[in-house]
Amino acid sequence: xxxxxxxxxxxxxxxxxxxxxxxxxxxxxxxxxxxxxxxxxxxxxxxxxxxxxxxxxxxxxxxxxxxxxxxxxxxxxxxxxxxxxxxxxxxxxxxxxxxxxxxxxxxxxxxxxxxxxxxxxxxxxxxxxxxxxxxxxxxxxxxxxxxxxxxxxxxxxxxxxxxxxxxxxxxxxxxxxxxxxxxxxxxxxxxxxxxxxxxxxxxxxxxxxxxxxxxxxxxxxxxxxxxxxxxxxxxxxxxxxxxxxxxxxxxxxxxxxxxxxxxxxxxxxxxxxxxxxxxxxxxxxxxxxxxxxxxxxxxxxxxxxxxxxxxxxxxxxxxxxxxxxxxxxxxxxxxxxxxxxxxxxxxxxxxxxxxxxxxxxxxxxxxxxxxxxxxxxxxxxxxxxxxxxxxxxxxxxxxxxxxxxxxxxxxxxxxxxxxxxxxxxxxxxxxxxxxxxxxxxxxxxxxxxxxxxxxxxxxxxxxxxxxxxxxxxxxxxxxxxxxxxxxxxxxxxxxxxxxxxxxxxxxxxxxxxxxxxxxxxxxxxxxxxxxxxxxxxxxxxxxxxxxxxxxxxxxxxxxxxxxxxxxxxxxxxxxxxxxxxxxxxxxxxxxxxxxxxxxxxxxxxxxxx
Length: 609
What we know:
By secondary structure, the protein is mainly beta. It contains five helices and 40 strands. Strands 2-6-5-4-3-36 form a six-stranded mixed beta sheet. A five-stranded mixed beta sheet has the order 25-29-28-27-26, with no helix packed on it. The chain has a four-stranded antiparallel beta sheet with strand order 1-32-31-30. A hairpin with a 5-residue loop joins strand 23 (355-359) and strand 24 (365-367). The two termini are 30 Å apart. The model is unreliable at 1-27 and 420-427 (pLDDT under 50).
C-alpha cells in the first residue's frame, strides 16, 4: 500500500468519518438502465440452469477454443449443469456428453487445473452427504481427467479418482490449486466442512475438521498421484476450544469455508489463506520454500468470525496485491443461546466486520476497512454496529475484484445472506443480516462509491422493492469475460442449502460496457512451469499520459477465487485510456522471467515460457 493511498484514506475518513450510518437516499434509480448488468440467464443458456443445495461454479475453457465455458454443481436432486460457450456468449448444455452430471451426488465446488500437464484443464469435484440424509459418497473428492477430443471431436471427462490417491479426503468445501514447491506440478489444498454440521445446528463446538494439503508427485499414463503432506507442512489449521464451560476442554479444527493461494510476500512462493467458520478465524500460512509453512499475523487475522469469501487485486496500483475477506457484517443480529458459536464474533477476540487488507509490498497486511470511505448509494447499510467506512457494510459470502469499466481501477462486488432465512409469501425474509449484495466502484483515490443499484446488482429480481429482506442467499461468485468483448461478466449462484427444490439459483449477467476503457487479457503456456502458468505474477507498465511516470498493473494467474468458485487461469487488466503496454513481465513459478515490449491493447495475449 502506497503512502499516498494511506494518506488519502486517512484524510477521506476524517472528512466524512460519520458517513455511516447514513439515512436512506430518496432517489429511485433505474436498476434496468443503460449502466445495469444484463441478465442473460434465460436467453443465453439452453436450457436455463436449475440448481439446489450449495451450488458452486467453475468458469474455464474446457475444450481449448479460447472461450469460457460454465460448470455449475448441484444437489442430488438434479444433475450438475455444464455448458459449452459458442464464443459469442451462448451456452449449450453438454453435461451428459462430457461426463460431469453426477445425478445422485450432492456436489459443491470444483478445482480447475492441468494436473498432468497435457494441455487440457482437469476438474476435481467435491461432494457432500446427501442433504436429504444418508451416507456420504465413497470418495468425496472426484478427479475428472480431461480426455481431450475423441474421434468425433467431443471433449469429455473420465473419472480416474482411484488412481490419484484422493479417495480418502472427505467433505471438501473449497479447494485451492497451485504449485507450492515450484516443481512444475500443481498441488491441491482442500478446505473441509461437513455441511450437515452447519454452525447454527450446534451449540458450542463443531466436529474436528482439519484441512488437507496434497502434493502432486507426477503423472503415470496421464493420471497424477497425490500425497498427503498436511502434518509435515503444518497447514491443518488453527484449533479452537468449545465455548461453553462443559465443552471448553474440546479442542478442534473448525470447518473451512474458503481457501485462497496467493504469493502474499512476493517471494515467488504461493502462500495459503484459510477462512474458517465461526468460531474460527483466518489462517495465513507463509510458504517457507521447503514444503513447510508458518502462520503469519495471527493477532490481526485470527479473530472469531464467519469468514466466507476472499479475493485479491492491487486496489491502489502500487505494485502489490491487497485482499478483501467477507464476514457476517455490521448488521449481524439474531438471538442465540449464550454459548452458541454463532455468538463468537461478540467475544473479545471476535469481529463481525469485513477485512480490507492493504499490502506493504513485503507481505505485511494492514486492515483498512474502517478507514476506507464508501460514498453511499441507494439503500445504504443500516449499520447497527455504528462503524465507519467499508467495515459498516453487511453480510458477504462470495466476492470478486474486477474492473467493471476497464478504467484501470479494480472494483469490488460481493453477495451473500444467511441460510436461515425463511420467506414470508407476501413479504421479506423473517431473519436476515441485510446481505443484499454490494457493488463498490473504485474511485481511484482510496475510496469506493456504492453503485449497486445503478449496475442492477442487488441480489434479487428486478420486480422486488429496494428494501432489505428480499435478497437471495448468494454463494459462489465469479467475474470473467464470457462473450469475448473484453469486459468482465458475472456468474453467481443462489440457493437455500437444504432445499432440494430446483430453482433458478444461477444467474449470468453481461457487462453493458458503458463508458469503457481498454483491456489486456494475458494467458500463459508453461514449459518448465506448470502448463498454464498457475501462480505466475504478471506486471504491465504503461506511460502515464499526464507525464507522471509509468502506471503499473499487477495480477496473479490463479484458478481459485472465493468460496466454491474456480476460474480460468488468466489475468485481465483494465487499462483505462492506455493504447499500448510499454513493457509486460511474467515471473514464472519455475523462477524464470519473460519480458515483452510495445504490446497493443484490446486483445488476448498468450505468453510462452
